[in-house]
Amino acid sequence: HAKRTGKGRYEVFRPEMQEAFEKTVNLATDLRLALERDEFVVYYQPICTLADGAPVGLEALVRWQHPARGMVAPMEFIPTAEETELIVPIGHRVLREACRSTAAWNRRRALAGLPELTVHVNLSTRQLRGDTPQMVAEVLGETGLAPSSLVLEITESHQAFDLAQVCDQLQCLKGLGVGLAIDDFGTGYSSLLALREFPIDTIKIDKAFVDNLDGCSDRSDLTRAIVQLGRTVRRDVVAEGVESESQRQALLDCGCRLGQGYLFAKPLDHAAATALVLPAPAQVDATPARADR
Ligand code: C2E
Ligand code: MG
Ligand code: MG
Ligand code: MG
User: Is 155 in the pocket of ligand 1 (CB under 6 A)?
Assistant: First the structure.
C-alpha cells in the first residue's frame, strides 16, 4: 500500500514501518502503565567546580524502573514519550521529585552553613506548552524550592518545534526567576540561533566537544572556542561528560569553571546523592557514649 506524506508525494508502506509503528504503540502503552504504577525514578549527577570537585548543583536524570527489564535508560523511552506527549506527565513527576529532594537538601545544607545547590531538570522543546510556566510555578510553590535554585535545561526535541512559541514560553519561565540552560550545546542545528533568541544563562557543552580535548589540536581548538564564546556572551559554561584528569585540566586552562562527568560521579540514586550533598554525620554520633555523659 502507499500513504500520503504531504505535498502530493506518496511513500510505499513497508513491513518494517508496520513493525516500528507497533513497537511505538506497545511502548506507549507500557509508559502509561509505568505512570500509573509510579515506576519512574530520578537519579542525580553532581555538577562540580572543575578546580576542586565541589558540587554546586545536580542534574536530575530520569530512569524507568521496569519490573522485568530492570533500569531502563532515558534514550530508550524519551523519544516515544515525546512523540506521544507522555513526556508531559512524566516530566511533571521528574520536576516535582527533583524540586522536593533539592528543597530538603538545601534546608539541611543551610543548617550546616553550606551554600544552596541548584537542580537542573531537562525539558525538551516538546514539553514547552502554554501551561508549562504555570505548572513550574505550582511545583515551586508546592515544594518550597527557591526559583533561583532551579535551572531548566532545554534540549532540542526529536520533533519539530515552533521557535516563536518556545521563545514565548521561555520568557514566561524566566519571569518566575528560574535559570535556563541550553543542553548539548554545539550538536543541535540551532545552537547558535537558540543562544541568540532564548533568554539563556548557561551553556552546557556537549560531551563530544569534551572528548575532542584528547584528540588532534584542531578539534580541541574548537572546544576552546566554544568555551570562549560562552564567556564572551557572559553565560555560565558547564562541560558535560568529563571523564579524565587531562580533560579537567584542559578545560580549566581554557577558562571553563564547571563540569559534570564520571570523573566526579555517575548519576546517583536518591540515597547516594543525599550522602554526597550533605555533610557526613558528626563523628560524635558514631562513637560510643563517653564516660562523662
Ligand atoms: P543530557 O541531559 O545531556 O544528560 C547527560 C547524559 O550524559 C546522561 O545520560 C548522563 O548519565 C551522561 N553522562 C554524564 N557524564 C558522563 C560521562 O562522563 N561519560 C558518559 N559516557 N556519559 C555521561 P542519561 O542519564 O542516559 O540521559 C540521556 C538523555 O536523556 C539526557 O541527556 C536528556 O537529554 C534525556 N533525559 C534524561 N532525563 C530526562 C528528563 O527527565 N526529561 C527529558 N525531557 N529528558 C531527559
Ligand atoms: Mg541535560
Ligand atoms: Mg547534555
Ligand atoms: Mg543529551
Answer: yes
